[in-house]
Specification:
alpha/beta, Pectate Lyase C-like, 3 domains, four-stranded parallel beta sheet, 11 helices, 28% helix, disordered C terminus, Glu_synthdom, Aldolase_TIM, glutamate synthase activity, Glutamate_Synthase, Glutamate synthase alpha subunit C-terminal domain-containing protein
Amino acid sequence: MRKCHLNTCPVGVATQDPELRKKFQGQPEHVVNFMFMLAEEVQDYMRRLGFRKLDDLIGRADLLKVNQDALHYKSRKLDLSPLLINASTLNEGAGVKKEMEQEHEVEKCIDMRLIAKAKDALESKTPVVIDDVATNLDRTLGATLSHEICKRYGEQGLPDGTVHLKLKGHGGQSLAFGLAKGVRLDLEGDSNDYVGTGGGGAYFSGKAGERFCVRNSGVKTVVEGVGDHGCGYMTGGRVVVLGPTGRNFAAGMSGGIAYTFDEDSSFQKKCNMGMVGVAPLTETASAAEIHEVKALITKHLERTHWDASVTKFMRVMPYDYERVLLERAAVVKETKKSASASAKTTTITWVVLKGLRYVRRGDSKEHEMYNQGNHRTAMTHSL
């Protein structure tokens, strides 16, 4: 199971934990030695080709050829020669290596604006709500802001909801990448792939495309439907799908749990059963697990703002159809009214004693109820 991002690498490679690092059998000198040997091998190839500098090799696709013996018998029929044409041959003057410094314009990215607007939260943990517009040029949106939080407060971050980002527009790749604790990001719009990479929770109003939660390692998420290859190679986290799924769901899934709403009993035909089992939730899960699923769905309802969204739904109905429904409703209402009036006549049994008189309200007639002999008499009267 993948742990490289959790600082818990069991073999001591991708971790800074001193106890886990003791498990690593290698030494830093081994890496240095590998790099030296790699450089020597590259130099050997360059000498054979007659080159002294790597810069002189860049773009020289004419020095490459296809190793036909290494090809699969099917791929041998492919003509790969167009891949080995030098770019300058197709487009005279085309650059094939770095010729100028690249301007990254980091200072203009949206995170810099967010950091400035979150000043009170960063300096004194004062809650802030930030409205802004996202574009698909803003990749890893939120990561630099999270870096600023972690520099000040470490892994514990800020209290929940201290920084609330309310964005509209189109998120770029890796939206909400590695968000620090205390940051909530709401996007009204759509986004490219790798949303929420790095853990936490994500709630989607709408359906996702293909490969939703592929390689998910810890995120808890709820979505209203997914395309093909959902939860492939997933190693951790929880995924709740409230709508339909595409084919090949859970291929290579080795960790975590997914829950799908299988309304038409078609899910198993779409699920890749190579590494997973599928069974009804109520037959296999504990009460605590069922409660967790319900809590995720409840939070999804809260986070996707149904109260605000319901006003945006448009109702489309034919005039004649609406008229018929209204007429039917009127008939039903009148029928219920008549039935209610009839139900007011009720039979009641009275047990009376000698000399007792009863006068019905709303009626001038007086009804005397008496005793015959020394026995009480039961009389019925309709109101």
